[in-house]
Amino acid sequence: MTSFRIKNYGKVNRKKAISFKWENKKYYGYEGDSLASALLANNIKIVGRSFKYHRPRGIMSCGVEESGGLVTIGSYDKRDPNVRATTQELYQGLTAYGQNAFPNVNFDLGEINNYLSRFFAAGFYYKTFMGIPPFEWGTGTSIWMVFEKFIRKAAGMGKLSTLPDPDNYEHAHDFCDVLIVGSGPAGIAAAKEAADKKLDVILVEQDSLLGGDQLGDRVFNVDEVYSELKNLNIRILSKTTAFGLYDNCVMGLLEKVTDHKAEVNDSLPRQRFWTIRAKHIIIGSGSLERHIAFNNNDVPGVMTVNASKHYLNRYGVLTGKNIVISTNNDSAYKTAESLYNAGAKVTVLDVRQDISLPPIFKDKIPVRFQTVPYNINGSRKIKSIDLATITDSSYKKIDTIICDQVLLSGGWSPVVHLLSHRGSSPTWNIDNLCFLPGNTKENISIIGAARGIWNREECIKSGIAGALDAMNKMGLTKTNYFFPKEGGWKNPIHPLYEVKHKKLISKSFVDYQHDVTTDDIRLAHREGFESVEHLKRYTTLGMANDQGKMGNIIAISLMADLLDKKISEVGTTVFRPPYTPIAIGALAGRHVGKHFRPLRVTPMHQWNLDNGAVMIEAGLYQRPWYFPKKNETLTDSYIREATIVRKSVGMCDVTSLGKISIQGIDSTEFINRIYANPFAKLPINKTRYGIMLRDDGIVMDDGTSWRLSENEYLMTTSTAQAGKVMSWLEELLQTRWTDLKVNVTSVSEQWAAVAISGPKSRDVIKSCVENSILIENLPFMGFVSTKLIDGIPCRIVRISFSGELGYEIYIESDYANTMMNLLWREVKKFNGCLYGLEALGALRVEKGHVTGAELDGRVTIEDAGLGKMASSKKSYVGSAMRKRGVLNSLEREQLVGFFPINKKHTFGAGTIVCEKNSIKGFGVGRITSVTHSPELGHWIGIGFVKGGKERWKNITLIGSDPVRNKQMELKVVSPHMIDPEGKRMHV
Amino acid sequence: MIRIKCPYCGERDHSEFTYGGDASIRYPALDASREDWTQAIFFRENIRGFQKETWHHLNGCRMWLEIERSTVTHEIKSVKPCHPDLQKIMDSKK
Predict the structure, then answer these.
(1) A250 close to B (CB below 8 A)
(2) Does the residue B29 lie in any domain?
(3) Could you point out which of A2, A315, A594, A739 has its C-alpha 20 to 30 Å from the C-alpha of A447?
(4) Is A888's Cβ below 8 Å from some Cβ in B?
(5) How many Å is the Cα radius of gyration of chain B?
(6) A291-410 falls under which CATH superfamily?
(7) Exposure string (b/e) for A615-627, b if CB count within 10 Å is 16 or more?
(8) How far, CA to CA in Å, does A435 sit from each of A90, A573, A740, A912?
(9) Is the pLDDT score of A392 beyond 90?
(10) Cβ of A743 under 8 Å from any chain B Cβ?
(11) Each residue's pLDDT tens digit, A103-129
């Protein structure tokens, strides 16, 4: 294909070519390629532009730490920005684009920022907020608003699709004995050992193939590993990243299910978000190679040493022909040899003194000791590299070498992220120049390179030790074992983080992704940011989507140098989940659209729909909102419904109320303690309205309780508070009043309920029951257990929320439709109607009845005008506190009604009530519920006002609604706007 | 994620439970003074380390539990039913 693909190298399937598009041009790769390897094979060196300075950037690594190859995949609603080309598997028809460039990555107008860089140094954003010196003009947010749109356009990464995410995501759960993260030599050894001891093992690998570092070996047979593990019944999750470790060995993982597929089976999710609960976690997450900071260290063609070995041996791509390797440790030499054998010209720069090396490094691969990279010449590609040697305390340029690639190895950083998520700080290891995982008491073992073990045989030993450690910590065995010591190189590593250039402003990058340079770190220090956490925020170091995987250590070493401290004293920033970025869609899973919340419907839901109901959400419930006739609007409909209820009769599904069965010999005592109203003497077959207070004296909820027998009650609660009240009753019985013999059971789902309201309601119900005399004689707030004419048992209570003569019928849920049909037949005979929540609201506002809109957790029983209902003869929950200090003030807002002065005016719930000359702030009150009153013929509302009705007699107040930009004049009236004596419901 | 060993249901995710409050508080009698109630409702220790707290197994057996949990590490030392009789019944069935 091209000369960059080397014969007899790599594990890609050369029999299967795959076409893909890069920046609208067609290219070919092979099955098994990553997008990065395919781009490199096609000699595409510039794949993006940098965050701030729009500098050309190329592929810099071969894994999740990638900082250069961030691309956008797909288009339209499938557009996925900031995808790491290094971890994106190539598939037929993949389309990818470079980012942060206009018109394209090869010619980008934004490159001008590179020359304006002195304005974009560390703290740029903060300084913009603070104003621009020397005159500090435009301080605060106004100048920010002006510049924001330009800055946002110029700086940044890929653009997100603003369309709804078309993909499906799924949540999955699993359990196991041991969860092993990473399938390198250590992870595989641990998995085998644990499975061999009959433990249930899940092995997780973020790559598409198992093997970890071994994938960069010339000879490595992945299939052998798979078959071996399968025989041991080890469950393998590849393409799965363990992104977060939580309490009790619970791991959050993200599996890429179809991200690598050209044609997607609709039944499969794009990604799967796993929650795995393990008894023990073994972390073999490996380590990442660091780069070195020196001038122009970001020119396309700069890469980590190990990455180039992987491109050669895994993908068969030789990334350069004339390669300079700069290292401070032994790991680079094996790669140097491989690259030489594959046909490249290789030169090694080693910062250390003369070390003993195999003969090949004398004869064929020149090694220059005590030599470091000083500067790269070239901007779009590498032309040559200047070398330096250290003299006294500064670097001195000694030579220039022509080359097309520079490979860097500044040491290795164990991936300590997962343990760090558990709050265990890593500790600096002076011998290996890296942070090693800290201690933990939890069931977690660290193995392999993640614990700083560099030698492969030792890694395998550490894997076995990890499995034994797991068995011991799980309490299964008491085996003696030991972990191999960290390290393992023949010659010690030598510190090399930055090669400081003589130039005043040097572009020597620490964090490639966020364009943070060594000079930015120095500037931050000069400006007083001395803590790593402050440094990070000020310079935005490590805050891009690689989270500082490569650059953090360099920054910390520079900071240590500036502060004249040791790295161990400076410490590192805290790693937090996720390890690699996760789509919000994956977190949401299937909880989107109509599945966002569970749906609750009443047993007559379909009946309501069949009879023309328009539904509204009330909590989780779907409730009938209104029942429009032809061409009726909501307003038309509810006014008609409410009018018919007052004139004749209407019926309404009220099933969503909470219903609790209370049984036991102490039931009466219990119920008398939880309500403020007296309940001790409630006769059997009578119902009472009751108000519950919280411990602190504020109203919790209201409802009714029916005395079914000596020791049994049925309690109803509001729809919204049903769950809370149930938990509250259980709490009282199980934690406080453990001597009471009472049992509470939720029966909300077991009973369907319908309200029949209006002057004709008695007639309707009489013709629906077997024994109409019972209904004729039923007193107000009385109930009967009886049968409908079809012989269906039911309970009928005479109760009124509308203010009219009214009943509620409760029936076993399965009979709901039968009941509705029966009642509706009779209701129609009186020209009655079905009514919904809107008419129900209108009727209750006219009567001044409170609901959740009024009882909002800030209101006392007195505020709600119900103080007289509270018993003065007993103690109950909240009785000690309901008249405490602030709750006793006459200045408190009290329930009132509101009329508009101009009868044509309307107002909305949420309107703030103010005095005429003081329309500001919280005013003197608020309107909580509003409606058009069919009976009064104008708009009305209820709400609260300071001092109550008497205080505002004959005073006109102003309703202010700044949100809807409205104002109107108001009059304060009694909340009981219709039939204040309650004559109608007592007929 | 905290995992809680419910004495009735076994070990479950904390998402099945709701947090109640400080389990060491002894609520005064209903007819106790306002001062006693003020103490019980508004004054709380801010404990660093193990504290006794109540949890409700809302989406499980609905038992109220007394749990000793470390506010630093989430480590749970003990879990038992709040209601003493429930504990006795469970012990007798073992």
Answers:
(1) yes
(2) no
(3) A315
(4) no
(5) 15
(6) FAD/NAD(P)-binding domain (3.50.50.60)
(7) beebbebbbbbbb
(8) 34, 11, 59, 58
(9) no
(10) no
(11) 787 877 777 777 777 666 776 666 655
Task: Look at A738 and B20 and tell me if their CB atoms are within 8 Å.
Answer: no
pTM for the whole thing?
0.90
CB-CB neighbours of A73 under 10 Å: 21
Backbone dihedral angles phi then psi of residue A639, each to the nearest 5 degrees: -65, -40
How far away is chain B from the Cα of A81, in angstroms, using its nearest Cα?
Answer: 30
Structural domain harbouring B73: 3-24+35-92
pLDDT digits (tens, 9 = 90+) for A407-453: 999 999 999 999 999 999 999 999 999 999 999 999 999 999 999 99
- Topology of domain A658-746, CATH: Alpha-Beta Plaits (3.30.70)
Cα A207 from Cα A239, distance rounded (Å): 5
If one compares B80 and A142, the residue with the highest pLDDT of the two is B80
**Minimal-distance CA residue of chain A relative to B42:** A696
Min Cα separation A731/chain B (Å): 7
User: Are A686 and A846 contacting, i.e. CB atoms less than 8 angstroms apart?
Assistant: no
- Flag if B64 and A731 touch (Cβ within 8 Å): yes
Q: Rounded CA gap, A586 and A244, in Å?
A: 14
Contact call for A727 and B56, based on CB within 8 A: yes
For domain A889-986, give its CATH number from 3.55.40.10, 1.10.10.60, 3.20.20.70, 2.40.30.110. Answer: 2.40.30.110
Please tell me the distance in Å from B61's CA to the nearest CA on chain A. 11
Contact A734 B82 (CB under 8 A): yes
pLDDT in tens, A572-602: 878 899 999 999 999 999 999 889 999 999 9
Q: Say yes or no to pLDDT of A131 above 90.
A: no
Q: Where are the domains of chain A?
A: 13-114, 121-154, 167-288+414-491+584-594, 291-410, 502-565, 605-656+750-842, 658-746, 889-986
Most B CBs within 10 A among A730, A745, A882, A886, hence the mutation to make, goes to A730
Tell which of B5, B14, B25, B27 to mutate to test the A interface (max A CBs under 10 Å).
B27
CATH of domain A167-288+414-491+584-594: 3.50.50.60
**DSSP state letters, A521-559:** HHHHHHTT--SHHHHHHHHTTT-STTTTTTTHHHHHHHH
Closest Cα in chain B, distance from residue A589 (Å): 17
Characterize the bridge pairing of strands A957-961 and A13-22. unpaired
